[in-house]
UniProtKB/TrEMBL annotation:
Residue intervals passing through the bilayer: 265-283, 303-326
SUPFAM superfamilies: Cytochrome b5-like heme/steroid binding domain
Name of the featured protein: Fatty acid desaturase 2
Gene: fads2
Entry GO MF terms: oxidoreductase activity, acting on paired donors, with oxidation of a pair of donors resulting in the reduction of molecular oxygen to two molecules of water
Pathway: Lipid metabolism; polyunsaturated fatty acid biosynthesis
Localization annotation: Endomembrane system
Organism: Sinocyclocheilus rhinocerous
Record has Ion transport as a keyword: no
Family: Belongs to the fatty acid desaturase type 1 family.
Gene3D superfamilies, per the entry: Cytochrome b5-like heme/steroid binding domain (3.10.120.10)
Membrane topology: Multi-pass membrane protein
Record-linked PANTHER family: ACYL-COA 6-DESATURASE, FATTY ACID DESATURASE 2
Domain Cytochrome b5 heme-binding: 18-95
Keyword Repeat carried by entry: no
Length: 447
């Protein structure tokens, strides 16, 4: 084995030697301040570097002690550039007798998925069509311009204001899907330009923070629907999600809220309040706490533009009301679209699955149609998006048959639903979860 001493030599630089390690040794380094990862059989000590990681420190921590090769490949469009930055962190490699995959992952499946990615790259599925995104940005700006012109031409009556609010909410939702594209580095040729335009779209068009989004969203992609790792299933004790958590809460008699009624209060504190209350507070708190001053400047530019445009017609009070009503509608749109592919799926603790299996157990697709594509920002292809997060969304439909064929080969369930069926499943699974909680609570009270 003999890795420990050589690892110290590598870090202190006394002799420049590299260590060889077993998976057992690597898996000992999982705590904050002492974290190793494996990428392409090479072992890296990321203990201190996690704080400087552009995607946030937690995402690497989620892979501490594990093989992160598939996540590394999925998130970085320019692998050669990233490998250059990782060289100073290299402390050795796996012993020759060790398998490339950890935790008894299916080596054949992993290899076939790697081959699929290479095939899709060769087919041009990772190449962007600039016109698609230019037109998408254009229709967002057009919606905002029409909304302002309606107020200018027809005044602030209730009917006209309602139409204006719908147009603005639509523009905000579509801008949300567009910032998502740039945030995943799937539009521009270089990461630098993706990051710059991302700050403009999420900051100036939406009044949010690119840094906050990156830190939160990439954790979700790295470990979707995994408790304590995916922030999207960390419901702050508001809901008990999945099949495991309701049972645990019932057995332990944890009751921050009346979970047996969560299918009812979900409609009051879920879709309507996520963006205008929870995200709104979290975004500003995160920017100030972490000193994201560039993000804050872009964010402020959105509010300055909005209030300069609308206070002259509505006054400050009614402009604030209009703003929050738009956020209220956008929040419903966002929650139903983003959760229809995840919340009804498996939600559990870490199972250390391979990339394909982990993503498929946590995601499902919604059938394709021009409306579904536009309405969801192509996140109706949630499976393909999670498998290949840097792929431009206009190419998901090309990757879908190949992903389905690979799933069929290995018996991995590939789910596709109707839009109505997906929305209905959110309610149906809420009912099942609260039933599980109530049953366990009843059993523990009568033991």
């Amino acid at each position: 084995m003999g890795g420990g001493g050589q690892q110290t030599d590598r870090i202190t630089g006394t002799n420049g030697r590299f260590g060889t390690y077993t998976w057992e040794e690597v898996q000992k380094h999982t705590k904050f301040g002492d974290q190793w990862i494996v990428v392409e059989r090479k072992v890296y000590n990321v203990s201190q570097w996690v704080k400087r990681h552009p995607g946030g420190l937690r995402i690497i921590g989620h892979y501490a002690g594990e093989d992160a090769t598939e996540a590394f490949t999925a998130f970085h469009p320019d692998l050669q550039l990233v490998r250059k930055y990782m060289k100073p962190l290299l402390i050795g490699e796996l012993e020759a007798s060790e398998p490339s995959q950890d935790c008894q992952k299916n080596a054949a499946l992993v290899e076939d998925f790697r081959a699929l990615r290479e095939h899709l790259e060769a087919e041009g599925c990772f190449k962007t069509q600039p016109l698609f995104f230019i037109l998408h940005l254009g229709h967002i700006l057009l919606l905002e311009a029409i909304a302002l012109m309606l107020v200018w031409c027809f005044g602030t009556g209730w009917i006209n204001t309602a139409i204006v609010a719908v147009l603005m909410a639509t523009a905000q939702s579509q801008a949300g899907w567009l910032q998502h594209d740039f945030g995943h580095l799937s539009v521009c040729k270089t990461s630098r330009w993706n990051h710059l335009v991302h700050k403009f779209v999420i900051g100036h068009l939406k009044g949010a923070s690119a840094g906050w989004w990156n830190h939160r969203h990439f954790q979700h992609h790295a470990k979707p629907n995994v408790f304590k790792k995916d922030p999207d299933v960390n419901m702050l004790n508001a809901f008990v999600v999945g099949k495991v958590q309701p049972v645990e809460y019932g057995v332990k008699k944890i009751k921050h809220l009346p979970y047996n009624h969560q299918h009812k209060y979900f409609f009051f504190i879920g879709p309507p309040l996520l963006i205008p209350v929870y995200f709104q507070f979290q975004i500003f708190h995160n920017m100030i706490l972490h000193g994201l001053w560039v993000d804050l400047a872009w964010c402020i530019s959105y509010y300055v533009r909005y209030f300069l445009c609308y206070t002259q017609f509505y006054g400050v009070f009614w402009a604030v009301i209009l703003f929050n009503f738009v956020r209220f509608m956008e929040s419903h749109w966002f929650v139903w679209v983003t959760q229809m592919s995840h919340i009804p799926m498996n939600i559990d603790y870490e199972k250390h699955q391979d990339w394909l299996s982990m993503q498929l157990v946590a995601t499902c697709n919604i059938e394709q149609s021009p409306f579904n594509d536009w309405f969801s920002g192509h996140l109706n292809f949630q499976i393909e998006h999670h498998l290949f997060p840097t792929m431009p969304r206009h190419n998901y439909w090309r990757a879908a048959p190949h992903a389905r064929a690979l799933c069929d080969k290995y018996g991995v369930k590939y789910q596709e639903k109707t839009l109505y069926g997906a929305f209905a499943d959110i309610i149906r699974y809420d009912q099942l979860r609260l039933t599980a909680y109530a049953e366990m609570e009843f059993e523990t009270l009568h033991m």
